[in-house]
Write a structure and sequence with these properties.
- It is a single chain.
- With 510 residues, the chain is of the alpha/beta class.
- The chain has two domains: 8-253 and 461-482, Aldehyde Dehydrogenase, Chain A, domain 1 (3-Layer(aba) Sandwich), CATH 3.40.605.10; 257-453, Aldehyde Dehydrogenase, Chain A, domain 2.
- Helices cover 37% and strands 22% of the residues.
- The protein contains 16 helices and 23 strands.
- It has helices at residues 45-63, 67-83, 85-95, 100-117, 120-123, 159-170, 185-196, 211-219, 232-244, 267-279, 297-311, 332-347, 383-386, 402-411, 425-434, 470-476, and strands at 8-10, 12-14, 17-19, 25-30, 35-41, 127-133, 136-144, 147-151, 174-178, 204-206, 223-229, 248-252, 257-261, 289-295, 351-354, 373-376, 393-399, 414-415, 417-421, 439-442, 458-459, 462-463, 478-486.
- The strands form six sheets. A seven-stranded mixed sheet has the order 15-16-17-14-13-19-20, sandwiched between helices. A six-stranded mixed sheet has the order 10-9-8-11-12-22, with helices on both faces. A three-stranded mixed sheet has the order 1-5-4, with no helix packed on it.
- The structure holds nicotinamide-adenine-dinucleotide (NAD).
């Protein structure tokens, strides 16, 4: 079904302009109504080639543009993002389905990455040592890589691209972005705003598309590095292929984030934090808390009871009603996948305490909704525990000790985020020090690092060595060059040297 007779076609942004290309297209849905709202043009190899050629042509001038000038464009970009925030959130809501206040939070987090990118002159200063030898100075500088690419998921169409290209660009690179094919419009609109802010053409190109488009990017020798965020099987494929093709790669994958609730925790606080962290954005967050690990049956029973009570007030519906807590899932297929995980938990012996499988949202009967679901007595051998559900489903695993909780978490294949609710500082310190997870919260349910730290998981939640954005992002998007220089003067000259020296001396005592 289509939403209106006039279906808009979403093109690409190449060489500073929106470009429409004939060829294959894919439907984009309004997930709250279930109708097709737009069609996205899928970039062919030729279109990807155009984008990379444009980026390559822009690079020589851009790499020599002073960092302060690059940063000034980011300052203007930040202002435009704030000015157009409502429009951006509307585009996110229409295609992703998340509620406007949630979209605003996402955008705010994205803008913080633009703010960090504004510090380009500071972060690119490099290191300098004078007189490392007689009349010899040494310095290290951070040079851009050239053309770099980003491939992003559907769940944060505004924020995740902003993790990547503002920083890559202020570091002097030119960028080719391939956003999610599910909700491309806000990403494209934001990229246009950056051009309005004064970005020269070719420095940022956006190609819309799916798997074939990604393959063309991965196979192009001119692309020096790839940042990826998405599911683990695709992250692993991207990392393996990109590195086999000689590219630098960071590929962030899926997650299963556990919250440990200790017997001494402030239960009311834990309940209200868990509600938002499990059900916010319909659980379609890589940092969503999808498993509560309760230490002891007493705290388990109390927690379940209080969450069940709180769930009676959950409001599910359209993005535009700000009193709603969360919206639909992204596609019909994903809705079916989420309900099938609930089915499997039930058939494997878990207790469905609150069931969101048959929810009907008035006025949105064709939408891809699953209501808030709470499942007790989940065990580590169940499919719904092992795999990422990515829906509004909170599972409860009961354990006897904190140690048992930590073994459970460490044994899970994912290691993106985790948190502990406790009043015991010693336990919290032991937990954060030893748990095998990349981002840890102590009484913080969704510990997404601020833009001037970096974001990433451990185990199969990240392929590559460097986290996304922040200081690790700078390392990822630059290449270090170290220069040692002598300008002989005042008779300071060295004769022939056949031995390995520390400049000017082979004598360990001098
Ligand atoms: P996805 O892996 O299906 O898609 C991500 C991107 O990869 C999209 O641009 C898509 O077009 C492309 N893609 C999909 N299949 C491909 C293939 N076979 N070959 C090449 N490219 C392909 O992920 P999604 O459904 O858009 O997003 C949800 C997933 O992303 C979840 O698993 C979630 O945990 C993860 N995620 C992780 C983080 C993180 O920081 N670790 C953040 C957000 C989302």
């Amino acid at each position: 079904m289509v939403e209106s007779k006039k279906i808009m076609s979403v093109g690409h942004l190449i060489d500073g302009n929106i470009q429409n290309r004939s060829g294959p297209k894919l439907d984009v849905f309004n997930p709250a109504s279930g109708y097709v709202s737009k069609q996205i043009q899928l970039a062919t190899k030729e279109t990807v080639d155009e984008a990379i050629t444009s980026a390559e042509a822009a690079f020589p001038e851009w790499r020599n543009t002073s960092p302060i000038k690059r940063a000034r464009i980011m300052f203007r970009f930040k202002e435009l993002l704030e000015k157009n925030a409502d429009k951006i959130c509307q585009l996110v809501g229409e295609e992703h389905g998340k509620i406007s206040h949630d979209a605003m939070g996402e955008l705010q987090r994205g803008i913080e990455n633009v703010e960090y990118a504004c510090s380009a002159p500071e972060i690119l200063k490099g290191e300098h040592s004078k007189n490392v030898g007689p009349a010899i100075d040494c310095w290290s500088e951070l040079q851009p890589l050239g053309v770099v690419a980003g491939i992003t998921p559907f769940n944060f169409p505004a924020m995740i691209p902003l993790w990547m290209y503002p920083l890559a660009i202020v570091c002097g690179n030119c960028f080719v972005l391939k956003p999610s094919e599910r909700d491309p419009s806000s990403t494209l609109y934001i990229a246009k705003l950056l051009h309005e802010a004064g970005l020269p053409k070719g420095v940022l190109n956006v190609v819309n598309g799916n798997k074939e488009t990604v393959v063309s990017i991965l196979n192009d020798k001119r692309v020096q590095a790839v940042s990826f965020v998405g599911s683990t099987p695709v992250a692993e494929y991207i990392y393996t292929t990109a590195t086999a093709n000689g590219k630098r790669c960071q590929a962030l994958g899926g997650a299963k984030n556990h919250a440990v609730v200790m017997p001494d925790a402030d239960i009311d606080n834990a309940v209200s934090q868990l509600m938002g962290a499990a059900f916010g954005s319909s659980g379609e967050r890589c940092m969503a808390l999808s498993v509560a690990v309760v230490v002891g049956d007493e705290v388990g029973d109390k927690l379940i009871h209080k969450i069940q009570e709180a769930m009676k007030n959950l409001k599910v519906g359209k993005y535009s009603e700000s009193s709603n807590d969360f919206g639909p899932l992204i596609t019909k297929e994903h809705q079916n996948k989420v309900t099938s995980y609930i089915d499997s938990a039930e058939s494997q012996g878990a207790t469905i305490v609150e069931d969101g499988r048959n929810i009907i949202v008035k006025g949105c009967e064709g939408g891809f909704f699953v209501g808030g679901t709470l499942i007790d007595n989940v065990t580590s051998d169940m499919l719904s525990y092992k795999e990422e559900i990515f829906g509004p489903v909170l599972q409860v695993v009961r354990v006897k000790t904190m140690q048992e909780a930590m073994v459970l978490i460490d044994n899970h294949e994912y290691g993106n985020g985790t948190c502990i609710f406790t009043r015991d500082g010693e336990a919290a310190r032991y937990f954060s020090d030893n748990i095998k997870v990349g981002m840890v919260g102590i009484n913080i349910p969704v510990p997404v690092p601020v833009a001037y730290h970096s974001f990433g998981g451990w185990k199969r939640s990240l392929f590559g060595d460097l986290f996304a954005y922040g200081p690790d992002g700078v390392k990822f998007y630059t290449r270090r060059k170290t220069i040692t220089q002598r300008w002989p003067s005042n008779g300071v000259r060295e004769g022939k040297q056949f031995s390995m020296t520390s400049y000017g001396s082979t004598d360990l005592k001098n």
